[in-house]
Specification:
Elements: H1 2-19, H2 22-32, E1 41-45, H3 51-58, E2 62-66, H4 70-79, E3 86-89, E4 92-93, E5 98-104, H5 116-122, E6 135-142, H6 144-151, E7 156-159, H7 165-170, E8 184-191, E9 204-210, E10 213-217, E11 228-230, E12 232-241, E13 243-246, E14 251-254, E15 259-263, E16 268-270, E17 276-284, E18 318-326, E19 329-337, E20 341-343, E21 351-358, E22 383-390, H8 402-411, E23 434-442, E24 444-449, E25 453-457, E26 461-465, E27 469-472, E28 479-487
Parallel strand pairs: 1-2, 1-7, 2-3, 4-6, 15-18
Antiparallel strand pairs: 5-6, 8-17, 9-10, 10-11, 12-15, 12-17, 13-14, 13-16, 18-19, 20-21, 21-22, 22-28, 23-26, 23-28, 24-25, 24-27
Helix pairs in contact: 2-3
Length: about 500
């Protein structure tokens, strides 16, 4: 009975403190208005009595309030019982799902924690010596990744969990193959050639789930991966070495510069011959039929025209597309040169070879996307992958001005991307609302920014976040770059 009274006092004290100060409320709204717009989704992790929830709602955001203390979760449900845009999750967040022991400070529920380290640090800290955690309670625990899968990707997340923040963030993504739910990532893998020390291959087996990955064995995780499938669409780009891709209906050998568009297909990688360095840009995909993750729609795969002529110095860009036409069996959709090549008359030897387009996330499992109109700039919530060949600047320098630059960006469907100015450091300066993942596949090139320049060589990677830039080839040979552009805010 005494615990209940002390706990009720603590909750009442918190309500008075956090809802009774109008100036504080105005300050919170001014702060969070920088991050939230009407209709955005916000996570309030460690919601307490919901004063941040109230601020997020005043700004028009939808809110998921995460609060593991039962009495506070009950208060939140009472306060927002009639607000359909507030969801209360009465759980703790951590690195894995299960349960956890919560340490309770009954007179001051604000500082309840699951962190022993936090309590140890607080014991002798100024202003904390009177705080006591005298009760414990086991509460359910889930992960941030699981909440994102349930509610969607938040535009803003507030975390206040008294020293347990690292554990909350550890549950965002456990570094399994798929990217974060609703997002993406780029990784570069170095797989070894087969040696006498290589472990034996494991036998094939029935599909076994591992979160958003499934595997069927067959490899050794040294020079040969397992046959596996991930809930993602992947741009796979060979940087060096050689790698074999095994599908259920064929085997393909990939060389440096080759690109695979893996549309959620079962596949196995084998680097036994030479070893390899390979980049993967992986992003969340929609499996409308559950774990089967089979192809949707009937878009006809595009093929390059017969006798396709490329500008001098431009090599055909290999594009491999794989998908599961039926459950549990991967198929080759196409292994051809890019079927869509764009040029710039003002720059002889320039080419943009289109690889893939994603018109929204999570990405759809489809046979083809190059019928979509996006070339240089992706949809606002999508992606484009292109391979550029830049000829030496000396071939066109001094012959290009405003009309030629405008014609190029218009032909690429992005006239607004050009930031041309006679005073600019390069005539083809551009700025787009994108995150660009750029890999130099051949040669070397200079990344020109407003205030500096960086020389980038084959095998090196540039990550651009909406920068004003241009690419300048000051060598005597063509430079080839793959650029995956993802829509961003």
């Amino acid at each position: 009975m005494r615990d209940a009274l002390v706990s009720a006092y603590g909750v009442a004290r918190s309500l008075r403190i956090y809802y009774g100060d109008r100036a504080r409320r105005a300050g919170m709204d001014a702060l969070y208005r920088r991050f939230l717009q009407p209709g955005d989704l916000a996570f309030d992790i460690g919601a307490h009595v919901g004063d941040r929830v109230a601020s997020f709602r005043r700004l028009g955001a939808r809110v998921v309030a995460i609060e593991p203390q039962p009495q506070l979760a009950w208060v939140l449900r009472i306060l927002y019982a009639f607000d359909r845009k507030v969801t209360v999750e009465p759980v703790a967040l951590g690195s894995s799902a299960g349960s956890i022991e919560l340490k309770l400070n009954l007179p001051n529920p604000t500082v309840a924690t699951a962190s022993d380290t936090f309590i140890d640090a607080a014991r002798d800290a100024e202003g904390w010596k009177e705080q006591r955690w005298t009760r414990t309670r086991t509460v359910p625990m889930t992960t941030l990744d699981a909440l994102i899968e349930k509610h969607g990707v938040p535009q803003f997340t507030k975390i206040d969990v008294e020293g347990f923040e690292d554990e909350v963030l550890a549950g965002l993504w456990d570094d399994e193959f798929p990217c974060p739910v609703g997002g993406g990532h780029q990784r570069v893998v170095h797989w070894l050639a087969k040696t006498a020390e290589s472990p034996p291959n494991q036998p094939y087996k029935s599909p076994e789930p591992h979160g958003r990955t499934w595997d069927r064995g067959g490899g050794n995780h040294y020079n040969r991966s397992y046959m596996h499938k991930t809930r993602s669409v992947d741009y796979g780009i060979v940087i060096s070495g050689e790698r074999v891709m095994e599908l259920d209906d064929c085997t393909l050998t990939l060389k440096p510069g080759d690109i695979v568009i893996d549309v959620g297909a079962w596949h196995l990688w084998d680097s036994s011959a030479q070893g390899c360095l390979m980049a993967f840009d992986m992003f969340d995909a929609e499996f409308v039929d559950g774990p089967a993750g089979t192809a949707q729609g009937n878009d006809k795969p595009m093929r390059p025209p017969e006798n396709q002529k490329l500008p001098a110095g431009v090599k055909p860009q290999r594009r491999i597309v794989a998908i599961d036409r039926e459950a549990g069996k991967s198929s080759l959709v196409g292994d051809t040169a890019s079927p869509d090549v764009r040029t710039d008359p003002a720059r002889p030897g320039f080419a943009l070879q289109r690889m893939w387009v994603v018109d929204g996330f999570p990405a759809q499992l489809v046979y083809e996307t190059l019928h979509l109109s996006h070339v240089l700039v992706p949809p606002a919530k999508g992606s484009v992958l292109n391979v550029f060949t830049f000829p030496p600047d000396a071939a066109w320098k001094g012959k290009v001005g405003a009309p030629e630059v405008a014609a190029y960006f218009k032909a690429m469907g992005a006239p607004e991307a050009s930031t041309y100015s006679p005073q600019a450091p390069h005539p083809y300066m551009q700025k787009t609302r994108t995150l660009d993942l750029c890999i130099v596949l051949e040669g070397e090139i200079v990344l020109v920014l407003d205030t500096q320049e960086v020389t980038v060589k084959a095998g090196e990677i540039v990550v651009q976040r909406g920068t004003n830039h241009a690419w300048s080839n000051r060598s005597g040979k063509p430079a080839v770059i793959s650029i995956a552009s993802h829509g961003s805010k």
